[in-house]
Amino acid sequence: MNKKEVKKAPTLRFKGFTNDWEQQSLKKIFTTITDYVANGSFASLRHNVKTYKNPNYAYLIRLMDASNNWNGPWLFTDKKGYDFLSKSSLKPKDILLSNVGAGVGKTFQVPKLDKPMTLAPNAVLLRSNKLNNQFCFYLLKYPQNKNKVLSLVGVSAQPKLNKTDFGRLIFNIPSDRSEQDKISKILSKLDKIVNLQQRKLESFQFTYHEIIRRLFLKKAKWQQTKLSDLVTILDKNRKPVKKEDRLFGDTPYYGANGIQDYISGFTHKGEFILIAEDGANSLTEYPIYFVKGQIWVNNHAHVLKINKDVSPLFLALALKQINYSKYTVGSSRNKLNLKDLENIAIFIPDNNEQQRIGQFYSNYLNYLRINKKRIQYMKQFKQFLLQNMFI
Predict the structure, then answer these.
(1) How far apart are CA 325 and CA 318, in angstroms?
(2) pLDDT tens, 336-381?
């Protein structure tokens, strides 16, 4: 294809489709591009839930927000306003586009609704009566099209997408409705599989955490000791390396919050527990990692070598149950000092129970790793389809 030729069909197509795709403006693709702020009706009907006193404003309707799905704010209004908003209610498979704020450019598709919902003030409704609405949703997800939309966002303190400019954008679409249907069907099916896998994983994690919580409720019956009696702390071998000075290799380079890079060489070799010294991204889920083999650790994570009479996996799990807000110092950047780390109280069961709990934790980590990778592969496959089934 020479420079003057324009690509007229995607790389990946279903069998039997050979027609060139055609160019259309989004104003023609979407028969509805609107928001309720623009027509003035929404602004006059909105009232503050904390300050309204008029008993007539007793009607409640949910606002659907493109940035945080359907968990937008509630709106108090009167009977007239409720009737207007109910008639203007969103429909399943409508497309919402966030047009203002930090989430500008995000798209979301309306699910089945159990009550009337209308637009929140930071979203634009997109609806097509001519094309497959599901296909149109994925059309906006195609990376090149997504970049076209984002290119319209002005640089300001409050990013905003101009609805008129958006309508002028030119996208490529198949004229054959059945090709739209097939594309949307395969992508929609893939989305459902990914969502199902994510929900199963979340359910599994919830069950796991509940089991662990109950296991550690009986810790009062276990033997109490200080962490310093169970481990040797090898912080003296840590070595930070600036990004530009790192030599690429196979060794994981650890910081406070896990692997930061892969480099050549190592600072430690064996089995260790790494725990954030400073810069932890969470105090409620404090960064703790059980690692094996050759590793490189910078100066933002403590390195704990476990004594032989303690199960490393059990100890890593036990450390995850600690409330670190009691041990860290500082406000803007919490720090877990060495002395405070050594004095953390740990409850230890007998060796047999340690091994069983440690094995349970190991099985959980393996399940988590395998299923996260599976979900990642499916998402990558979807991106491949998006990249090759559109132009």
Answers:
(1) 16
(2) 999 999 999 999 999 999 999 999 999 999 999 999 999 999 999 9
